[in-house]
Amino acid sequence: MAGMEFEYDEEGGTFFYFLLSFWSLILFPTTYYLWPRNKSQDDEEKKKRACMCLPCLVKQKRLKANEPWLKAKQKIVKLILILGWVVFIALAYKVSKVQLDYVEYDPFKELELDRGATTAEIKRAYRKLSLVYHPDKEKTGDHKKFMRIAKAYAALTDEESRENWEKHGNPDGPGAMRFGIALPKWIVERENSVWVLGVYGLVFMIILPVVVGIWWYRSIKYSGDEVLLDTSRLYWYFINKTPNMILRRAVMILAASFEYDKFHNSEVIERPSDNEVIPSLMKLLPHMQEKNKERPLCYPYSVKARALLMAHFQRIETVPNEQEMDLQYILKKSTYLINEMVNICANQVSMAMAGRIHQAPRLDTIENIMKISQMVVQALEEKASPFLQLPHMTNDMLRQLNRGKKPVRCLKDIATLKEEERRPLFRSLGDDEYLDVISVLAKMPDVEMIVNTEVLDDEDNSVTAGSIVTVTVILKRRPLEDFIKADGSRKPVDYNQQKDGEEENEVAEENPEKENAEAADNTAVWDKRRGKGKKKPNPESRKALYKERKAKARAAEAEALKKEQEALNGPQNGPTKENDDQDEVEKESETEENNDNETHKDEDDDEDWSKFQQQSKKENSLETKGKESFPVHCPYFPIDKQEWWWLYMADRKKHLLITAPVQICSLKTEEEFQLKFCAPATPGVFQYSVHLRSDSYFVDFDKVVQFKIDVKKAKPVEDHPQWDISEDEEDGDHDDDNDTEDDSDYSSEEDSA
């Protein structure tokens, strides 16, 4: 009876197949992702146009100081990958030389005969080979070969053996089912079992639990933005404690983050020189509030971080080398910490609206925290001039900017000046330095913000008390380079906007009917949406309601057309036979046309409905975008910084945040965003403002658009026509049992569907 037999790899052939497959699964993706790539041409062009001011050169030198380590790392990665490919080639060569264990048994081949050999030829070949390979022969004897020859002779001469060979491929009959395991046999040998169990226990019982434990311990300490949970609790406590927070207080809380404490972060280094450097630095800084007794604001790590941050804001260059390294580490972490503070403020505002906390942080608190991000990136204090963001700027040059023929109030004003007016403002700079100023100014952004308000759930798009208002914000970014011409002429500030407005007015004057049609189409879009205050029907009922409204509109159009035709034809005296026959023919043709029209209308309804569903899905879908925009000129910031923004809505009169700030990380040319908020519960006219605030540029680049909404009284809730229950249905319900009656009272269209 055939059984099963497991065989381990005696010669290691199948093990090499397994090893080659496993190695290729690791090597191919690793090579694709980790092989160092050459720098693109865009990077080379950025280097050519880079600013050559002294702070930028120092920053470039500092970043290049880390490049040898990066180059060494790339060389090590290349070497490891090359060794991996050498191992892969060696394994492939070894596999190609491995012979297959399974070879089909052929007795004719063993006796060196053809398939049509006779019995006499078989006996003759057996005697001949036996004389050569018999074990008694000293020179040519081969025990294994002789056994195969004898087995082949028996398979061809014995009837039972030959029948087994023909049926089962084996003269001995059906053998056991054999399974090969791609592991060397020495792994399961008794004398090696202790070592194998030891390695198994070391890997799966010690190393793996330790690795998982370390990962788990680190993961529970940090939030999703790699911020310590203790730091988030610290922010929550102080923001809740002081809802109206001045900027200096916000800086103190930022400096008290546990990321700067060695007890919570092993990357922090406590230096003996801090006891001498920090006190001397504090004498140069006013309003340090070093005598504050609040914990952890009074801890040494917090005082050190606060002193280094305030020295950074004032661009004090007397910080020693060791403390300069600490300052760079503080600045690298600060952008993520500031974003965490903004998020916590937004969460507290939403919780205050829900009544879970007593008082929400004021709008000034959130904007002060955002302003710290600008100060950190540009190394400017609170009341500094925004012109200091340009390279080679000094206090004397700031005075010259106010002495020109035209007032210069912001950086955009400099870009819009003529060349003959702009160059004298920087007469103290050389040509190369002036070129640095213009190149940096040309890369800075100018963002146009367009704000539209609408109520998506209302048919007439009116804002009622308690309705959800959708604020659509369109951001159009263009560099200030568009305002600077090579010939030195001046572009109007709102040239494109004026041009677009003129073209739109011309089109509106020439095609008033087209404008009305577009307005009707816009209204139809809102008609497709369900009304405010109604229960949400299922898709089938929404589709039916949509078709019903379109049918009513068509019926109204047909009735109006009929009245016009009657007015044109005039009244008739009486019907005649010819007219009756003609009317019958016309009715038949009209019936056929109406049937065709109804078919086409149903198809149009289905197409319109599918388009509407696709539009709804597109509006509700979330698109994930990469965090890449434009580099920021920030010579005092230790690393390269991308241009990010915060977008939010506020009530300036009440100093309240209306919508949570949205962080925009991918604004390159044009982006569209939606902010939603609940309208006030009382009717009236309310004023709001949409704010766009940069996290990298100082003051001049923040945008504000104010708008008003007229909140009307809430409409009464109307019953849906499809929800009405006819008298027949009510009678039928009374005939059923009591349970059915109770259920029908609370059933809706969704349940019936």
How would you sum up this structure, described in words?
This protein is of the alpha+beta class. 53% of the residues lie in helices and 10% in strands. It folds into 6 domains: 94 residues, no CATH class; 62 residues, Orthogonal Bundle (Helix Hairpins); 27 residues; 159 residues, Orthogonal Bundle (Sec63 N-terminal domain-like fold); 59 residues, 5' to 3' exonuclease, C-terminal subdomain (DNA polymerase, domain 1); 183 residues, C2 domain (Immunoglobulin-like, Sandwich), CATH 2.60.40.150. Helix 1 runs antiparallel to helix 4, helix 10 packs across helix 14 and helix 12 crosses helix 13. The longest helix has 44 residues. The chain starts with a strand and ends with a helix.
Mean pLDDT, as a whole number?
Answer: 75
Biggest sheet layout: 5 strands, antiparallel
In DSSP terms, counting alpha (H) and pi (I) runs of 4 or more, how many helices? 26
Q: pLDDT under 50 segments (min length 5)?
A: 486-537, 571-582, 611-624, 732-753
Anisotropy-based shape: elongated
Percentage beta strand:
5-15%
Overall radius of gyration: 42 Å
What is the count of distinct domains?
A: 6
CATH topology label of the largest domain: Immunoglobulin-like
Membrane topology: Multi-pass membrane protein
Subcellular location: Endoplasmic reticulum membrane
GO molecular function: protein transmembrane transporter activity; RNA binding
Transmembrane segments: 15-35, 76-93, 194-217
